[in-house]
Amino acid sequence: MSQPLDGLVKFTSAIGLNRGHNTVHTMHRILSHCRLGVFAGLLSASSWVQAQSELKIFTAIEVEFATERGQSYQLQGSTDLGAWSNIGEPVFGNGNPVNQIFSAKDGGAVTFGNYRLNVTPITVPGLAPWSFQGLSLGLGDDGAHEHYDFLSETNGVKVSPTGTDPFTYTFTRTGDNEAQVKLVKGSSAGDKDRRDLYTFTFTAAKLGTFVREEFRGARLKDRDLGTFTVLDGTQPPGGNPGDTNSVPVAPPASLKGLAYSFLSGATPERLEFLSETTGIEIEDKPRPDEDEPNKPFSYTYAFTTPTNATLVVNLPDNRRDEYDLTFTQGAQGSFVRREFRGDLLTDTDNGAFSPAGNATSGGPNGGGGGTPPDGNGSPVPELTGTRYLFRSGATPDRLTFTTATSGSEQSTEEDDDANAFTYVYTVKEGSAATLVVTFKPGQRDEYDLTFNLDGTGTFVRREVRDDVVTDTDTGSFVRDTGN
Questions:
Q1: For the structural domain made of 386-479, what CATH number should be given?
Q2: N or C: which end of the chain has fewer CB within 10 A?
Q3: Could you read off the pLDDT of 210-250 as tens digits, one per residue?
Q4: From CA 193, how far away is CA 185, in angstroms rounded?
Q5: What's the rounded Cα separation, in Å, for the pair 279 and 402?
């Protein structure tokens, strides 16, 4: 249960600097006029142009509060002590105090007159641990021989065939499945300017991907990606039931029933392989304007050497991604991905991949679309009250089935009125069904539907005008669960 706490937040405010702003700005204009008088003999009035440099000073608040593990802290502000608004992102407690600064620029946090902390117990543990103390993490291609031992809450050693290097670190749990470690190597004063920031994303109880940013002073020197394995120590809590046992320990001969996380940028992408040829692409942090956050795909997977494989993912809109996979730590490794639109290569990137347990069609902790009630590959028994997106080109068509016999069709990028229709839906054997949509006498669309395990699927559509087939196309469909 959320528990607002008042009076436990210490603020340092820059209130009063606005008055200084006016004084400084007036003095600036006086100096400018003096400067104009001194140089008036050198420049004519018509040639003298000086842009005023406006000095801006903004107020801010500095917030400091203690934290406990297992709690989430959300700073909130209010103008009337009645309605409270969240400020910034929630903070996961780690036993250390937190210090944050919020600016008043552009209507920032200082516009509120009252502040409080909303403290919420973490009910879903996630995959990330609350502490790295006692853990040994193997990073990179040869993690078993070069690893990091976190001996206490603040100290550890990097172990390699050439010896050990001490380090100090600060641990912060930043999400259900994510943690950050600020690591300083060595013990001399000069080493303080050499620090690494690691972001660990757990894809399973003891596996995941990481981003390492190397800093020298305030300058970012290098950034690279990789995989990690928890070699020893207490197993991180949480996770989906069965995830630990379902994670392969060697390069999998088949991807059916597995989920993999691919990291090449700030956030990973999750591919769930529902069958030997079909799956769903899930963005861990989907864009708000995404029409189809869970994208169905077909794929092929084949080994070229015992530790190298190719993966070709065919997505809607005539897009495909071609992966070259290199398994470096059991079932984990690195990849090169080429993105195609038609036959045109549009982008090439690389990163790290790691198994993420079973294919659940819902992300690491069950969020997202979820498995439909008929998740055995059979067609849904009826369409009443559902809405589907049918994609065969750049813009999907949204079909809403209001009753057992009527509905409406509308393009997802058009604001015009929807086209009303009547329909007949028939379930066939296996994973097949037919759908006949009639807009008006002499105008109908005939669909042959094939359902996948998760309720998505593919279709063949014939457009019929006055009993003549005028066009035939193919595509994919997905249940639209948006508002």
A1: 2.40.128
A2: C
A3: 999 998 877 888 888 889 988 876 545 444 433 445 678 88
A4: 10
A5: 28
pLDDT at 413 over 70: no
pTM value? 0.58
| Domain definitions of the chain by residue range | 3-121, 136-232, 246-358, 386-479
**What span, in angstroms and rounded, lies between the C-alpha atoms of 369 and 434?**
24
Write out the H or E segment, with its range, that includes residue 348.
Answer: strand 344-358
DSSP string for residues in 156-224: EEEEETTEEEEEEEEEEEEETTEEEEEEEESSSGGGGGEEEEEEEEEEETTEEEEEEEEEETTEEEEEE
Alpha helix (H) residue ranges in 340-483: none
Residue partners of 213: CB distance under 8 A and separation at least 6: 196, 197, 220, 222, 223
Tell me the per-residue pLDDT of 124-134, one tens digit each, with 9 for 90 and over: 567 888 889 89
Decide yes or no: CATH 2.40.128.30 for domain 246-358: yes
Bridge partners, 10 (sequence order): 64
Report the alpha-carbon distance of residue 260 to residue 359 in Å, rounded: 9
Residue 233 to residue 136: CA distance in whole angstroms: 6
* Amino acid at residue number 295: K
Identify the band that residue 423 occupies on the pLDDT scale cut at 50, 70 and 90.
very high
Which amino acid, one-letter code, is at 435? Answer: L
- Best mean pLDDT range from 58-62, 257-261, 290-294: 257-261
Beta strand pairing call for 386-391 and 468-479 = antiparallel
- Please list the residues that pair with 163 across neighbouring strands: 160
Q: How many CB atoms lie within 10 A of CB 387?
A: 16
